Amino acid sequence: MKGLIIKGVGGFYYVKTDKGVFETRGRGIFRKAGITPAVGDRVEISELDEEGKGVLEKIYPRRNSFRRPPISNVDRIIIEMAARDPEPNFSTIDKLLIIAEKMNVEAAICINKADLVTEEELNELANRYEKACQVFRVSLKNKEGLEQVEDFIRDHTAALEGASGVGKSSMVNFLLRGEAAEIGHVSRKNKRGRQTTRHVEMFELASGGWIFDTPGFSSFDMEGELLSSELDKYYPEFRDYIGQCRFDNCRHLSEPGCAVKAAVEAGEINSGRYKTYTEIFEEIKQKENKY
Fold it and tell me: Which pTM does this prediction carry?
């Protein structure tokens, strides 16, 4: 029987099939082969009894897979950030965009809590990313701009990522019309979110498509994922300038005749995005030098 893994908890995998949802465990062959089932996997299961128990027999080839969060077959990624409370962590956001580019997954930035900042502040945040991907300006509190998010997900599988406290659970609750997980609140003391999502799960939307709900985080390990020499390929706004630099191996840092740096100085590439590029480059380079 074919199905889709929609939730994974403690070694149990919940598979949606035409006959309903089955609680399954994977056969030992997966462990021996070093394969861990993931939410989003298309699978084959056998039914054990009439109480919704089954065995995971086969995992079909994946379009893609992510280590953290452990999900597969992702069409699109929505990176949710808050305009304020908590303040955006641009390094983490840019790393997520890099991973999306590397995995050939279309990404979008969703700026929540737009009602907490001025139009000028909101424009500044949006302008940072408008040449890299789609940007949605939303207010979950006022229910504004959310139709753009639904349109982006429709007929696709979409992962919702972002740091704790940005409104991820609230977004999932809206998309599911109130049927999702509990909502955490931002600590008044330190303005950091309390994590409420404890496992990876995906939900089918009435508006079309599926949404992955994944544990939030405040850091992202790039080790083993990327080489410093290829980082510039994953900044879409750099592409028109790569190849125009004086040196073929230009890394766009301190080299003379760099077309990317000239574009930054001319305001054609956002200076904030360029700054995080240099920081991430040095972070990756330091890790490479350790080995």
Answer: 0.84
